[in-house]
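Reminder: ligand-aware prediction takes two inputs, not one.
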Amino acid sequence: MSTSLTLVQGDITEQAVDAVVNAANSSLLGGGGVDGAIHRRGGPEILDACRALRAAQYGPGLPTGQAVATTAGRLPARWVIHTVGPVWTSNEDRSALLASCYRESLRVADELGARTVAFPAISTGVYGWPTDDAARIAVETVRDTGTAVDEVRFVLFDEPALAVYAALVR
Ligand code: AR6
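Here is what comes back for the chain with AR6:
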């Protein structure tokens, strides 16, 4: 069966899905934006799991473009898939790294057996990526990735971002 792409305007921490993707940073130890909201709402179990990952496999941190899963703690999801988006810069094309975040998150979702996955607009907040370009990369990459996930839900915080995605998906 093919993967359906759906759009929701709202808070990613409220999504009842198998896996929620976190726009994390390499430290895996939290931050602002989506990351802050996930740790705040999901509770300390998520941070404990992230600390354990750092101690075991990711001493120097999770590299940009990769993804790793933890418990979702108290969120209405089973797992959080943490991925690290690239910081946007005009000097260098980092699109491949942003595409990798989506591809690697879906690969991890398949390993977990997740059927519904919610993504935020990775890198479009603190990391400064223009929304139009980030949306194009997100939609194209998900469409081009073979996955057993039934629903990929893009969760956009505001109306303008939702409109950008809607133009690509609908
Ligand atoms: N639900 C859905 N979308 C949200 C939410 C939310 N609760 N909160 C913000 N957004 P950002 P990045 C939107 O900054 O650019 C953190 O400090 C927001 O409007 O969360 O990848 C990490 O620790 C924006 O469009 O992620 C890293 O250091 C999008 O989500 C760094 O920020 C992503 O914004 C990662 O920066």
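Residues 13 and 40 are 9 Å apart (CA to CA). The mean pLDDT is 98. We will return to this case in the review session.
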